[in-house]
Amino acid sequence: MRSSTSSSSSIRHWGVVCFFCALVAVAVCVGTELHWRSLGYESGIIDSKLLWAEQRDQVDARGSRTPLVILGASRIEFSVDMDVLEDALPGYRPVMLAINGHYPLAVLRDLAEDEDFNGVVLCDIDARGLSAHYFDMQQPYVDYHRKQWTPSWRVHRRALDLWQSTAVIANPDFGLLPTLLRWSGGRADPWKSHIRFHRDRSADIDFQRVDTAAATQAFVDGFKRRLQSDPPPSPEQWLAGLAEVGKWVAQIKGRGGEVVFYDTPTSGKLREYADEAFPPSLYWDRLSATIHAPALRYTEISALENIPLADGSHLDFRNKHEYTHALIDALVDRGWVQR
Question: Are 171 and 75 in contact (CB under 8 A)?
Fold first, then answer.
């Protein structure tokens, strides 16, 4: 009898201990969350290969709507308003697969090899990105989706979507160890990003929180350095390299799909140096005839002539609505998509 009573007492004791430990843990999490929020930090989705793979699944999702897959890098990832696309093109299912800082041809190749894909691809790329040297830049994302993306990781990513969109402390920068290391080293609090990602992987840039002059100069300097380390191929070499791209386009079109290449807006010195390195008459203007696919340059869209590019390369999120409508109108007017 005593043994039974002692056992019950022990269980109650540990139950009380676990309850108070959980209570303390919750209080610490809530207190930490409120602390960072009081300093102006906000919760937000963190882009990753997992988030990209989650969207890659949407390409093959069954349904009545045609996939409209957006490829490219930051210029289109941060410029297109996905809600506007959904509303203005109800027959399409927009999927954002652009990756910041990476040219997209590896993903175009992946779509060409996907026998189930027969949708529309809007591929944001410039003449430099069409050089064979850059074909594999996004391949690690393709490999991750093909080889490591599993049902358990899908569940994990969906949980992360909810957690990251709800809590500031979901960001690893606010974890216990990084915080202790900052405090012990007298380092500043985490950087407050001016970029906010959404669950669909589109993103907003708030240029009111950016030194635009410094950002503009950084883009120009970076572009000049890349041209020095990787000079432009000759027009003949460039055209020869497009043979592979033409094969991928043909595969997609053979299944009833379409690929539209789109050179997004730039301005100022960045535009000047790009056109000098890759004269449109020798490069971009020869693209469509070479790979037998539509090619659209921002200079052909009159509504974009005066669109403000805060750093010479990207839009402030306040201009996304106007930009997206202008882009949709250009695609519809040319018969490449239908309202």
Answer: no
φ, ψ for residue 294, nearest 5 deg: -60, 145
pTM of the model as a whole: 0.90
Q: Which fold has domain 49-157+197-333?
A: Rossmann fold (3.40.50)
Rounded Cα gap, residues 2 and 35, in angstroms:
49
Nearest of 46, 44, 142 to residue 97 by alpha carbon: 142
Give residue-wise pLDDT tens across range 66-102. Answer: 999 999 999 999 999 999 999 999 999 999 999 999 9
Q: Radius of gyration over alpha carbons of the chain, in Å?
A: 24
Ranges of H-type helices in the chain:
2-38, 49-59, 74-77, 82-88, 105-113, 139-147, 151-166, 176-185, 212-229, 235-254, 268-277, 287-291, 320-333
The whole-angstrom separation of Cα 143 and Cα 140 is 5
Q: 3-27 pLDDT, tens per residue? A: 555 566 666 777 777 877 878 878 8
For the chain, the structural domain boundaries read 2-43+169-187, 49-157+197-333
